[in-house]
Task: inverse folding
């Protein structure tokens, strides 16, 4: 596995360490806007809910956060399975201190190809550079080793910052995702991985000399990659 790995007793401990790390990264550059890309999934969701509770909510400079998505299901934003709806309900609405202009959902109207181009243009407008670097990208991992909406057996093209995804093995079949190339340019990436069903994929990542799963292909160009894993996901090797 690439990066550093830290194993915790349970999902709550993973969420708490995630909150500590976010707070620490933001404190390194006080007052500066902080670009944060969030993923869907039950493990990140626990982290988002924790941020809305004391003492975390009172320690974060919410006005400096610029919130993006790492991936999205190509569904209306009010659909029960929308990643943005989950982020809004678990984090944005309870906090209500992040200006709307700081929130950047992925568009899901028109065609998925056009939406990918529109979100790439929004990233270009925000970062204003040829190689945008998120301050932090929060990723999960599925039991099949996928991350964001980058799935095993799918092509992961180089060049685009945002890619349309067709024929996802998980419903819905059509999605948007930050590209692997863009993820690997980030300053920091946190993988949050919990649950016994993740143990086989995590074991494959630990043993592989060449990455065969999308999560293993996250290899930051210059940034810091950290895995926060619970005991159930780490498996019997936990000590």
Result:
């Amino acid at each position: 596995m690439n990066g550093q790995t830290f194993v915790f007793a349970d999902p709550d401990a993973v969420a708490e360490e995630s909150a500590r790390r976010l707070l620490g990264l933001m404190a390194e550059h006080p007052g500066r806007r902080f670009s944060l890309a969030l993923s869907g999934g039950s493990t990140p969701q626990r982290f988002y809910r924790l941020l809305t509770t004391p003492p975390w909510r009172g320690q974060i400079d919410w006005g400096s956060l610029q919130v993006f998505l790492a991936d999205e299901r190509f569904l209306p934003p009010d659909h029960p399975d929308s990643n943005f709806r989950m982020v809004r309900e678990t984090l944005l609405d309870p906090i209500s201190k992040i200006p709307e202009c700081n929130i950047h959902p992925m568009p899901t109207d028109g065609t998925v190809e056009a939406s990918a181009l529109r979100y790439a243009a929004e990233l270009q407008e925000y970062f204003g550079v040829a190689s945008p670097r998120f301050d932090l990208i929060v990723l999960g991992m599925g039991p099949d080793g996928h991350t964001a909406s980058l799935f095993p057996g799918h092509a992961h093209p180089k060049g685009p910052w945002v890619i349309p995804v067709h024929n996802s093995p998980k419903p819905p079949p059509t999605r948007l995702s930050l590209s692997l190339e863009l993820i690997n340019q980030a300053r920091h990436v946190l993988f949050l991985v919990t649950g016994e069903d993740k143990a086989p994929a995590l074991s494959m990542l630990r043993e592989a000399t060449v990455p065969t799963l999308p999560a293993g292909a996250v290899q930051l160009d210059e940034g810091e990659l950290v895995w926060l894993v619970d005991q159930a996901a780490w498996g019997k090797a936990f000590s």
Observations:
- Residues 4-237 form a domain with the Rossmann fold fold (CATH 3.40.50.1360).
- Strands lie at 4-8, 34-38, 65-69, 71-73, 103-104, 136-139, 162-165, 175-178, 188-193, 224-230.
- The chain has a mean pLDDT of 94.
- The chain has one domain: 4-237.
